[in-house]
Amino acid sequence: MSNKVIENLYYTKSEEWLKVEDGIGTIGITDYAQDQLGDIVYLEKIEKGKKLKQDETFTTIESVKAVSDVKTPATGEIIEANVKVIEDASIINKDPYGEGWIAKIKIENKDELKNLMSAQEYSEYRKE
Amino acid sequence: MKEQEPLLTPLHEEHLKLKARMIPFDGFDMPVQYTGIIEEHFAIREGVGIFDVSHMGEIELRGKDALTFADYLVTNSVTKMKDGDIKYSPLCYPHGGQVDDLFVYKIKDDFVLLVVNASPNYSVKDYDWIIKNKGNFEVEISNKSRDYGEVAVQGPDAVKLLEPLVKGEISLKELKRFKFIFGELFGKKILISRTGYTGEDGFEIYSFKSEDIIDIWQGILKEGKKFGLKPCGLGARDTTRFEVCYWLYGNDIDKTVNPIESGQGWTVKFDKGNFIGKDALIKIKEGGISRKLVGLYIPQGGIPRTKMEVRKDQKKIGYITSGNYCPSLKKVYAMAILDLPYTEKGIKVDIAIRNREVEAEVVETPFLPPFNKR
């Protein structure tokens, strides 16, 4: 089973990660999530400019065997979608924390980030 | 109601050793994948793979009327089969819907083996149905699903791998499609048939003692290394069968679907003697069907899954029976049962995938021709 955790990212219980730089958040799914899904073959188109509330579903990932919603870890506006991953969703399996990022969001409320887990908290949550 | 403990095949420990991901399937705890569905899919299409199919059911018919009784149970004609022949057939209810689809193995005039789908409690649904319809036939019916072990070795390299290993009446190279022989493999007595559910060349190997299949599995894994053999799970079993549009009982066909509308009409022989479902199927054939199983191509927008609604101008016209990404074609297809006016090739329909409507087009089946028709 694959279950890598990367430092300095925020994590959600629904298995997304968020990297925050200069008020911009990059969103992806965890290594555990990609491993559980298996071969990922489809990422639903993502609407740029869409305003989302923390925890709101903004796209769907499909693997050969399963479907999973992707939720935003923070409130804000989608400013970019990873077009490479929409073309070839298997990149998420290969590099979930790097090339396999899904979307970027302009974070509206930094206070919300305290609702998310740190790498250490997430590791412990995964062990439970 | 208390949930039943899942049944385990004799190879369960082997799957755990290989760190397979296990899922409940038809009452069994089965491997869905070992390393990855797509990787396993290509092992079968381009090399060779092995599946544990010990969950399948085996029902033996023995006695003077074994063959005529089998002929009464199934829609295909089996009385003229030669020893060592295999035929595919639906097993129908009197109304024409299907109890199951199965393979008839003619061992000899007074001994027929029916290989049926897995269902809870060792395919007891098929067994009970067969017992119920025994009537005055002189036949002994035994459910041997617990005793037989079974693996499927599938892929273009299957014959190269198995031919030197199997001791039988003839070489596996000489064994034709839909034929079987008895033989020996790693010192165990087996029945081996040139059949499969993947659209590739390959074999299905039955042991008569369930535990014998463990040595066979381990032996094939070891000998298969030089061919790059991979253990394959239910995930790859589904993607390979789906590309060539082999029906999956419980998805594409069931008790509500008759063999005429599903495209299994070639297996219904009206010119033979009486069989269960004959009157209903004659009426259906003469009156014409009102819906049909077709293939759909989905250019973009997601993967249709079983039971999703198919619409035309917002009106329901049918439902998806199976849908998936096809690794060999790198495209998304589905099978669907649609009202007859919408079953012509080229017709555009919509599939309700969660909260969206996704466009699809009726296309020819199979999506990928089986190996001998490519």
Count of runs of 4 or more consecutive helical residues of chain B: 8
Mean pLDDT of chain A: 96
The tally of domains of chain A stands at 1
Q: Identify the quaternary structure here.
A: heterodimer
> What is the CATH topology descriptor of chain A?
OB fold (Dihydrolipoamide Acetyltransferase, E2P)
Supply the number of structural domains of chain B.
Answer: 3
Strand content of chain A: 25-35%
CATH architecture of chain A: Beta Barrel
Describe the model.
The complex is a heterodimer of chains A (128) and B (374). With 128 residues, chain A is α+β, with helices and mostly antiparallel strands. Chain A is built from four helices and nine strands; from the N terminus they run E-E-E-H-E-E-E-E-E-H-H-E-H. In chain A, strands 1-2-3-9-8-5 form a six-stranded antiparallel beta sheet. Chain A is globular. Chain B is of the alpha+beta class. Chain B folds into three domains: 12-56 and 147-243, Probable tRNA modification gtpase trme, domain 1 (Gyrase A, domain 2, 2-Layer Sandwich), CATH 3.30.1360.120; 57-143, Aminomethyltransferase beta-barrel domains (Alpha-Beta Plaits, 2-Layer Sandwich), CATH 3.30.70; 290-367, Elongation Factor Tu (Ef-tu), domain 3. Chain B has eight helices and 20 strands. Chain B has helices spanning 12-17, 37-46, 66-73, 120-132, 158-162, 212-223, 234-243, 278-287, and strands spanning 21-25, 28-33, 49-52, 57-62, 86-92, 98-108, 111-116, 140-143, 149-154, 167-168, 180-185, 188-193, 202-207, 230-231, 291-298, 309-312, 315-326, 331-339, 348-353, 356-363. In chain B, a hairpin with a 2-residue loop joins strand 19 and strand 20. The termini of chain B are far apart. The A-B interface holds A 1, 38-39, 41-42, 44, 60, 62, 64-65, 67 and B 19, 21, 32-33, 36-38, 235, 239, 301-303, 305, 324-325, 327, 332, 354.
